[in-house]
Design goal:
By secondary structure, the protein is an alpha/beta fold. Helix content is 26%, strand content 26%. Among the domains are: 82-160, Immunoglobulin-like (Sandwich), CATH 2.60.40; 172-363, Rossmann fold (3-Layer(aba) Sandwich), CATH 3.40.50.300.
Length: 391
């Protein structure tokens, strides 16, 4: 059975207000041959309607305004407002042109791809960017794009590839992801794992606030229980003792829904140990991994190598978010957004995953993820050579 995961790469600049996010297509990991597959992006020229002097709409798919070589990509983004509607199988965008001095449809440029949309207009002869959506909320069918001018509005109609997915907005953003997450997660919890306890906590807090989940920190729970810091605990009893205690905390939390759990990083963290993931699989796990990768392809290769090696427990995570730099104090929300974006890709690739997580919990988190065994299966028999059917 295939377990899909997504990889995101974030680059933090020295300017705390600037973050570059690169999110890859869905990456599928297939056992046991360790093969990978990627979803390709195939751009198509959209079709559109223009209106003649009689007000009738005519179809044309060869309009020169759709040329991708018009050299306007560096123009600034306009502050014009727009209206957005989700009409089940399609989405409708209405861009206000009242202040743009657009004289005809020939003054409008619409460039739609599967995952992006750019709208520009000639305002008194000068090109202005009205919409620059580098990442649509989900994929569309570019060849079925329609646009027309209705009074002082530009109406753009995009055909969804997935008509069942509700779009909160035209663009993928922190706001649209937090609003749209409930229909995807269906109450499933999220576990944040990675080398840095502090980063795990910061990102988990941002996620919980954004999607309305309850935040938990295993570090805080353990320190409140033991009345000592994690560092003191490690010095007095060793990292194995801390890991065992955190494992017990995770077992208790595994039956909860709508939670975001920040786990311990470092040697004392349960998630670092491949044999301690039984209860982490109760929710969607996100691995926050610092990297030296300079581009998307390098991040993909690094993630593939980690999963194939399987040397770290982190390689069991459902989602990998790669990030550069260590100044996460100013970028926790950017990391949280990358987590939601990657989780969205993961779940859209297999919409049964939230239900499987729920089933895994109901059967007692027996450690048989993702190949869930039938009721009555005994985890102690996993190594006896018997291979029962999976659910």
């Amino acid at each position: 059975m295939a377990t899909s995961f997504s990889v995101s790469l974030l680059k933090f600049s020295q300017n705390p207000n600037t973050t570059t996010t690169t999110t890859t297509n869905t990456l599928s990991f297939l056992q046991p041959n360790h093969s990978f597959s990627f979803r390709p992006t195939n751009p198509y020229l959209p079709r559109f309607f223009t209106t003649n002097d009689n007000g009738n709409a005519s179809f044309d798919n060869s309009h020169p305004r759709f040329s991708r070589s018009h050299g306007l990509s560096s123009l600034p983004l306009s502050t014009n407002h727009y209206e957005f509607f989700d009409n089940s199988s399609e989405v409708e965008l209405r861009v206000h042109l009242k202040d743009q001095n657009v004289r005809s449809s020939k003054d409008v440029f619409v460039d739609a791809n599967e995952t992006s949309l750019t709208i520009r207009a000639l305002n008194s002869g000068s090109p202005t960017t009205l919409i620059e959506a580098n990442r649509l909320f989900d994929r569309v069918k570019p060849a079925e794009t329609i646009w027309l001018i209705d009074d002082d509005q530009l109406v753009v109609i995009l055909k969804k590839q997935d008509p069942d997915l509700k779009w909160p907005d035209i663009m993928e953003s922190w706001e649209s992801l937090t609003v749209g997450s409930s229909q995807l997660l269906k109450g499933a919890s999220i576990y944040i794992v990675g080398e840095s306890t502090n980063i795990n906590q910061q990102v988990a807090k941002e996620l919980a606030v954004g999607i309305g989940y309850t935040p938990f920190s295993t570090k805080e729970l353990l320190e409140n229980f033991s009345k000592q810091t994690i560092d003191s605990w490690v010095l007095s009893e060793g990292s194995d003792s801390v890991a065992e205690a955190e494992s017990a905390i995770l077992e208790s939390l595994s039956s909860h829904v709508r939670t975001v759990v920040a786990t311990l990083g470092g040697q004392q963290g349960t998630s670092r140990r491949a044999d301690k993931w039984r209860h982490l699989h109760a929710g969607f796990t996100v691995w926050l991994s610092q990297t030296e990768a300079i581009d998307e392809e390098s991040a993909k290769e690094e993630a593939k190598k980690h999963v194939q090696d399987g040397g770290s427990g982190y390689s069991k995570a459902d989602v990998v978010v790669k990030f550069q730099g260590c100044d996460t104090d100013h970028h926790a929300k950017s990391l949280a957004q990358a987590c939601l974006s990657a989780l969205k890709q993961l779940i859209l690739a297999d919409k049964k995953l939230p239900g499987k997580k729920s089933l895994y919990i109901r059967l007692g988190c027996r450690g048989d993820w993702p190949n869930i065994k039938p009721p009555g299966w005994d985890p102690s028999s996993a190594g006896d050579g018997v291979s029962p059917a999976t659910l």
